[in-house]
């Protein structure tokens, strides 16, 4: 396989700079000053933080704006297969992942401006986001927070068109705190004085209260899910409601009841950012939205061909207890409509609550095959992960790979075509998409 020019630039950076996060805005601010502060020359920014659902909100926001005829930049992280996935540049027909030559040139320019000073690779790549988005025209820029909010490198945008806080729960406790109110306070750090705020469906009153109090203290126009806007299912449709009235829409293309709330947050955010969304545009967005690696159906590909005949295969990168709950609920909905035995193929990293993730599937999953996560140094050994699944009340066994799990299930299962969830880690999701021959585009 040919190594892309941008990959070579990033590999060189990783050899020079520390891996991981070092939460501070000092280094990124210094670097952006040298680059002429490109973050101040962006189109209207929709800035999205949260523990779960922020990627889905970004995907819905993009779909809504493009359905309304706008050109949109999108920054998301992490990527699944290629670094280029983090940067979708505005273009007719739905935008495009950044061209390798353009990406490599931007990385080299930012690295040169940094002049070898202490910095993290994520901060350099965030500066690349601002370079790319400021130099290519668009009507809006959707920017997803990398980690936390207050000290995330994306949080140098002084006046976002809207700040969005999606569901907050425990994750990244080593960086953000071990109580939900502490994590909510970090996420609330993206809220800027006087700028509109959308608060998505929260799992706890504690998180909700922290977010509302922060927005009120900063005198922000604030719109709260369940109070100022909401979405619900009615006769197989999604009804969105806010102060402007109702929209009767198709159910979101992204499966799971939780996507109703994610879609609602995106509609509210795009409107709060100053864009009009017609009923027709909202309908188109619900049926066209795509978000790879998040309850993505694998209907074809090299790995899919190894599964039992007729198997219903889903891939999801959710990796914490909150994600486990919403994914399990989505699969339970499918079970109600079309009963099938559920099997999990799971890989996780050691910074996540593995037992907490598995507990969501107790009583739903028939068996778990645990696999290594080879794309991360922090991968939990498959035999240890099987123990965590058993502790959560599931039947589990370690196997060497996703391919091995699929073939083992194919060779030993003699019941009806199963439903299979491959998940537990975005690293695993990316490896699966690469091996399956279906990377994001």
TrEMBL record:
InterPro entries given in the database record: Folylpolyglutamate_synth (IPR001645), Folylpolyglutamate_synth_CS (IPR018109), Mur-like_cat_sf (IPR036565), Mur_ligase_C_dom_sf (IPR036615), Mur_ligase_cen (IPR013221)
Domain Mur ligase central: 48-270
The protein's required cofactors: Mg(2+)
GO MF entries: ATP binding; dihydrofolate synthase activity; metal ion binding; tetrahydrofolylpolyglutamate synthase activity
Family matches, as SUPFAM superfamilies: MurD-like peptide ligases, catalytic domain (SSF53623), MurD-like peptide ligases, peptide-binding domain (SSF53244)
Keyword check for Metal-binding: yes
One Pfam family named in its UniProt record: Mur_ligase_M
Classification via NCBIfam families: folC
Protein name in UniProt: tetrahydrofolate synthase
Species of provenance: Mesorhizobium waimense
Biological classification of the source: Bacteria, Pseudomonadati, Pseudomonadota, Alphaproteobacteria, Hyphomicrobiales
